[in-house]
Design a protein that fits this description.
By secondary structure, the protein is α/β, with parallel strands linked by helices. The chain contains seven helices and four strands, in the order E-H-E-H-H-H-E-H-E-H-H. Helix 1 links the parallel strand 1 and strand 2.
Length: 177
């Protein structure tokens, strides 16, 4: 994609599950990655416990095809700071996409164990109302990145880009120097 748009070097900004691809860019193409800004990042090969309540309920609801209950679960889990009509609509869209992706989704190469190789400026933002397992993986990702600055955001949940867009924009500007 960078080649398609003629971009020589980019700042990888990623939220949630986008953390894996952004970190993959930093690992696979460090010469093309100026910095990374991560918002409550995940990475696919982090060992998420199988007994996690969200994962268990989510898997059950997906198997049942219960989109309405998945939206409710998503709002309870990812938006404990509150949800308006726009956030509910966004959650409905996210749930719908899980059913549409099907076999198109591809797993990123393993990355969690080699994050120490990332040697570019990095910042990680995390809301203090984040889901515990996401907070755990986010903090462990940041700890593995050399010199990663961590910003804990009071009152923010997983939807931090919607809750604090100016703070996020400033963090991105700061990490790019």
């Amino acid at each position: 994609m960078l080649d398609h748009f003629g971009i020589r070097k980019a700042v990888a900004v990623a939220h949630s599950g986008g953390g894996g691809p952004a970190l993959g860019l930093a690992l696979q193409c460090p010469e093309r990655t100026q910095a990374v800004a991560l918002i409550a990042p995940g990475i696919h090969d982090y060992p998420w416990p199988e007994n996690d309540p969200y994962l268990q309920e989510c898997d059950s609801l997906i198997a049942a095809g219960d989109r309405g209950s998945l939206v409710s679960l998503g709002l309870r889990t990812w938006a404990p700071a509150g949800a308006d009509a726009a956030i509910a609509a966004m959650m409905r869209g996210a749930v719908s996409s899980w059913f549409e992706i099907g076999d198109l989704e591809r797993t990123d190469p393993p990355g969690f164990g080699v994050l120490g190789a990332v040697r570019i400026p990095a910042v990680m933002l995390l809301g203090d109302q984040e889901y515990p397992m996401v907070a755990d993986v986010s903090q462990k990702i940041a700890a593995r990145l050399s010199g990663c600055r961590t910003i804990l955001v009071p009152g923010a949940d997983h939807l931090l880009p919607l809750r604090e867009p100016a703070l996020l924009a400033n963090a991105i500007a700061d990490v790019t120097g």
